[in-house]
Amino acid sequence: MDSELIKESIGKLYVKYLIPSLGGALATSVYSFVDTIAVGQACGPDGAAAIAVINPYFALMCFIGLLFGIGGSVLMSHRKGEGNIREADRVFSLTILLLAIFTLFSWILSALFIDEILFFSGADEELLPYAKAYIMPIVATFPLFAINTFLPPIVRYDEKPKLVLKAVLIGGCFNIFGDWFLVFPMGMGMFGAGLATAIGALIQTIILLTAFRKGQTSLHLVKPKETARTSMKILSTGFGGGILDVAIAVLTIMINKQTMKYGGRDELAVLGVIMTISFLLQHFFAGIGQAVQPIASTNFGAGLRKRTWESFTYLWWTSILFSVISAAVCILFPSQILSVFMDTTENVLSIGPHIVRIYSLSFLLMALNINIVFFLQSVLLPFPAMIFSLMRGLIASGLLLVILPLIIGMDGILWAMTGAEIITAMLAIPYTLASRRRQLAQTVHNPLDIVPES
Questions:
Q1: For the chain, how many structural domains are there in total?
Q2: How much is the pTM?
Q3: Which residue, 89, 116, 212, 274, has most beta carbons within 10 Å?
Q4: Per-residue pLDDT tens for 83-101?
């Protein structure tokens, strides 16, 4: 096995994969980030509120891509670590097939029921025209967004992390320029912002696909074997990371509905801004975990446990660093952040800083909780990874979103996010450290024979 992933020092590999991965995650998230700024400035609080309604749809597209991109790349890395390249190609081929089936099915359903989806996500009659104008170009290009989240883990597996960064930077830069040009000089408003995002996604897809040019890739399409068994492994492995986006979708819908019940459109506009920031940070933090995944899973597949868990140490401290910085910026500069995102009214500036400061406390533990999930997937512990994802993303957060507003009103919506992160960390951190001790003490001939712990 001549892969650099099991030969170079973990520190050098970490830096090599982290910088492109973070850049790629940041540029991908910038789509929603810049769109919120553009429509908030052009259309005011109603435009920002419409983006909050649309975010669940973005999350659905990202979920499909991450489900198969992460699930496939982790299994491929394990096979690669064992030296079984042929089986890695079989996993790759099956993953492509599954992605195509799920994407086509979701695309058709979402196109048929887009109005119902927007109303369910929190739109009312006044917000629907704003949301629909933005989302129509996105619906038309649905597969591009699923492909764009699917390809980066696969391309990183193919040891081309810089290509991922190149693709998302060029696509993101066009989206930034397109937002300005189409929304303001061209006067296309919400539709222009959506169109710029769709074209940016097309550019990103084209660049990522160059990774598979003949003679420049180690990946090959072959006939899959044991498709049912392998499909279940892909789904179970990828679910923990993909559920991040399902959680974003479900929580956004719950937050939107609770905000309209306990607050109003101005509160929803402010939450639209801070949730867009949260959406960006979650994908940025996930970029840390995705940078470690090919390193950890390949070394784990090769039986190199110390190297595997050494990568977790880097993951741990990087997560803490970025969490503290992110929370501090939002707590210290809430009014300035709101002014960047929208043409603020007096009422928005009055209620906004309080909302931003409380919500941003959840960022302190977010990165660590997210990246524990990505790492557990890499060391063949998909079941606890799924449990922790569900806990922070749906179970604890969902329950707190229902219960806390009954007690403390609008503030309960904000504190629910921090409470969910605390509960998840109290479960996930001790479990992960105990798993580290167990796995370092084990000597296993074939790591793929390990039964996932629960």
A1: 1
A2: 0.69
A3: 274
A4: 788 888 888 889 999 999 9
